[in-house]
Amino acid sequence: MLQERRLNSNGEQYVVGPTGTPLTLRDLPPSDTNRWVIRRKAEVVAAVRGGLISLEDALEKYRLTAEEFMAWQKAIDKWGMQGLRTTRIQSYRD
After folding, report:
1. DSSP string across 16-66
2. Whose CA, among 6, 36, 44, 94, lies 20 to 30 Å from 73?
3. For the region Disordered, what residue ranges are annotated (predicted)?
4. Per-residue pLDDT for 89 more than 50?
5. How far apart are CA 50 and CA 7, in angstroms?
6. Phi-psi region of 33 (alpha: psi -120 to 50; beta: other; left: phi over 0)
7. CA 8, CA 52: separation in Å to the nearest integer?
8. How do strand 6-7 and strand 13-16 relate by DSSP bridges?
């Protein structure tokens, strides 16, 4: 579901991030991110869902597969941010 586009006081487009705070393009993880903690995964999902960055751009920028991104999205939808914990993945499988 796409969120309404909003502008902050600096004129930057933002969406509401996974922690409820504004998330701009500057706030997204760097493109060379190797350590994908829960918050970073959730930020990328929120940015795509909110239209801040396209799915195609996110996949290219972060060198992700569509399947990997969709797994993050599904985990958030089903279990919230805690579903993104890689160390507990077996507990969350169907």
Report:
1. E-TTSSEE-GGGSPPTT-----HHHHHHHHHHHHTTSS-HHHHHHHHT--H
2. 6
3. 1-27
4. no
5. 13
6. beta
7. 13
8. antiparallel
The answer to whether 59 and 65 have CB atoms below 8 angstroms apart is yes
Measured at the alpha carbon of residue 52, what is the angle toward residues 51 and 55, in degrees to the nearest 5? 65
Q: What is the pLDDT of residues 1-41, one digit of tens each?
A: 555 568 888 888 999 999 999 999 999 999 999 999 999 99
Judge residue 81's burial from the number of C-beta atoms within 10 Å of its C-beta, 0-12 exposed, 13-18 middle, 19 or more buried: middle
* CB of 44 closer than 8 Å to CB of 70: no
Residue matched to tokens 């409820």: 20
Six-digit token string for 5: 């586009």
